[in-house]
Amino acid sequence: MIPTEPQNRREFVKRFSLLPAVSTLLTASWSNTLLAAVTLPKRPTRGRMLLKISDFPALQDDFGSVRIGTSPVAGNEPTGLLHPILINRGPGGQFHALNSECTHAGCVVRPYSQAAGACICPCHGSRYAIDGARTGGPAFFPLLPYAVQFDGKDQLIIELPDLPHEIHASLVRNDAGSAARLRLEFLAFAHIHYEVMFQPSVSAPWQATPFALTPDGPLDQTVFAGNDDFAGVYVDTALQTGFLTVTMRLQPV
Ligand code: FES
Question: Which class is 6-44+164-252 in CATH?
C-alpha cells in the first residue's frame, strides 16, 4: 500500500530496494591499492530484495499479498525490464515470492485474492494458488518461485538469480592529480530508478548517499533515472570504510 503523503512515500520507498548480493567494494580507505583489488561480479549476478513486512499492511495476516516492482505495470505488461514480484503470505505465516510473469503468455499476474482464492492472470484467466501452483486456465506451469529468508520478526530477503546488474568502479583524479571521486558505472535500464547506497559495516543499515553526475559536479543527486544506456555517477571519497553499491528502487505496482 502506498502512503498518500509525498514525504511518507519517499521514506517508504527508500526502506527497500534491489541490490547485488555481493557489494563490489569493501575498503579500509579509498586507496589505489584496494581499488585495484576490486573484482567485477561474474555474470549472471545474483540480486536480493530486502523489505520489512511491517511496511505492508497486507502482509500482516495470512493470505495477504502484495506486488512489488522496479517500474509500473501498464495494462497487463511491465514497463521495465523485470516483471514485478508477488509476495504472498500463506497459512502459518509462510511467505512465497513469485515471479508475476504468467506462464501462459507473459502477462503480469495480479496479487493473491482471498475472495477468489487465487492469483489471477488478467489476460486469459489462468489461476495460481498462493504458493504459485497452477490451478486453472490455459497456463500449464506454476509461477516461478524465488527463495525467501524470513527472520521470524520483520525482515524478508528474496533471492533473485540472473539479475542484470553489474557495477564497475574506478578512481577519478582531479587536476592536481590526487584522488577526487569514485566513479560507479552501470547499465541503467529504462523505467528503473537507481540509488547509490552506503553501508558503513555489515550489520549497519544501508543508507542512500548523494552523488554527482560529473567528476566535478555538485554532490546533490539522489536518484538516477535509467534510459537503457550506461550511467556514470560519482561519489565523494570522503566516505570512509564500508560497502558501496547501486540499487534499483522498488515500489508497490
Ligand atoms: S497470459 Fe496469463 S492466461 Fe494468458
Answer: mainly beta
Which residue has a Cα nearest atom 4 of ligand 1? 124
For ligand 1, whether the C-beta of 129 sits within 6 Å is: no
Q: For 56-145, which CATH superfamily applies? A: Rieske [2Fe-2S] iron-sulphur domain (2.102.10.10)
**Ligand 1 pocket residue status of 126, Cβ below 6 Å:** yes
Closest residue CA from atom 3 of ligand 1:
124
Buried b (16+ CB within 10 A) or exposed e, 82-96: bbbbbbbbbeeeebb
Strands 112-113 and 207-208, sheet pairing: unpaired
Number of H helices, E strands in the chain: 2, 23
Does ligand 1 have an atom closer than 6 angstroms to the CB of 10? no
Assess whether the C-beta atom of 102 lies below 6 angstroms from ligand 1: yes
Given a cut of 90, is residue 31 above it in pLDDT?
Answer: no
User: Taking a C-beta distance cutoff of 8 angstroms, is the pair 65, 88 a contact?
Assistant: yes
Indicate whether 186 pLDDT > 80: yes
The full set of domain ranges for the chain reads 6-44+164-252, 56-145
What is the value of pTM for the model shown?
A: 0.81
d(Cα 132, Cα 88) in Å, to the nearest integer?
9
**Positive or negative: CA dihedral 185, 238, 221, 4:** positive
Q: Is the dihedral of CA 96, 71, 202, 57 positive or negative?
A: negative
Q: What is the pLDDT of residues 128-151, one digit of tens each?
A: 999 999 999 999 999 999 999 999
